[in-house]
Amino acid sequence: MFAPIRLRSTEALTSHLSVTLEGDAHSVALRRSPRARRMTLRLRNASRDFVLTLPQNVTLAVARDFLERQKGWMSERLRRLPATVALAPGAIIPLRGVAHRVVHRPAGLRDVTIEASGEGGGPFLNLCVSGPQAHVPRLLLAYLKREAQRDLDAAVRFHASKIGKPVKRVTIRDTTSRWGSCSSTGNLNFSWRLVFAPAYVLDYLAAHEVAHLLHMDHSPRFWKVAHQLSSDVDRAEAWLKTQGAKLHHIGE
After folding, report:
1. CA-to-CA distance for 220 and 226, rounded, in angstroms?
2. pLDDT at 191 over 90
3. pLDDT at 99 exceeding the cut of 90
4. In this structure, are residues 89 and 112 in contact, taking their beta carbons and an 8 Å threshold?
5. Which residues have CB under 8 Å from 141's CB, separation 6+?
6. Three-state secondary structure along 63-96?
7. Residue 213 contacts by C-beta under 8 Å, 6 or more apart in sequence?
8. What residues does each domain of the chain span?
9. Do 248 and 174 touch, CB atoms closer than 8 A?
10. Are 92 and 40 in contact (CB under 8 A)?
11. Which numeric CATH code is attached to 92-247?
12. Residue among 94, 132, 134, 133 at smallest CA distance from 114
């Protein structure tokens, strides 16, 4: 427990501190909580940054000292993160859980197509992006989001029809804290990055959010509906637990 201290207004309003790890500056977000009894530091895998939660009366000097003592832990946690994969020619990215190599085709209209590898079949399919090379990331990102929207629209409508509940809208976003959500008004939101997951994972998450149209909680009644809609609940949950974080490091 920290002794009561009245913070200066500049300290109370400071939202970030900077810490140098192995020669690189990293921003640490500060969160003051009236319920916190000690300082806690966590790494946000998706955004590759840290959040330090502080009791209300902890000074910035104490917070900086704490971060200095945690530098080794912070560096180690960053090293454990999956490598980032750019949406660029030569990259290997999963599409619906299947490895695809990004190939640039300078000629032709600005488009994205899938072709079999010309290298004896090869271990990958080719995700061919035509048009200027500078536009490859943008064109590929737009394609992936369209595919995610299409897959999720179809899966949601299918599962909603089984329980007779209307869906107002299916929206894709780049969320980091959850893969999907359901509002009380019948709007469903999903991460577009689910297009990288195996098809059964995307389908399960669509079923999961549709089940929330009946039960806006995670009660036994909710899970009964989820299991009725999807036979892959346990398998998909296990995949997300071990592999899900990697999806946030593709196309950052």
Report:
1. 10
2. yes
3. yes
4. no
5. 87, 251
6. HHHHHHHCHHHHHHHHHHCCCCECCCCCCEEEEC
7. 160, 163, 165, 167, 182, 186
8. 9-80, 92-247
9. no
10. no
11. 3.30.2010.10
12. 94
Please report where in the chains the tokens 């029809």 appear, as a residue: 161
- Residues 240, 179: Cα–Cα separation, whole Å: 9
Closest CA to 208 of 185, 233, 183, 187: 233
Q: Tell me, what's the pLDDT at 81?
A: 84
Answer whether 171's CB lies under 8 Å from 191's CB.
Answer: no
Q: Is residue 10 very low, low, confident or very high in pLDDT (cuts 50, 70, 90)?
A: low
CB count in 10 Å sphere of residue 63: 20
DSSP letter at 250 equals B
- CB of 176 within 8 A of CB of 51? no
Beta-bridge partner residues of 44: 49
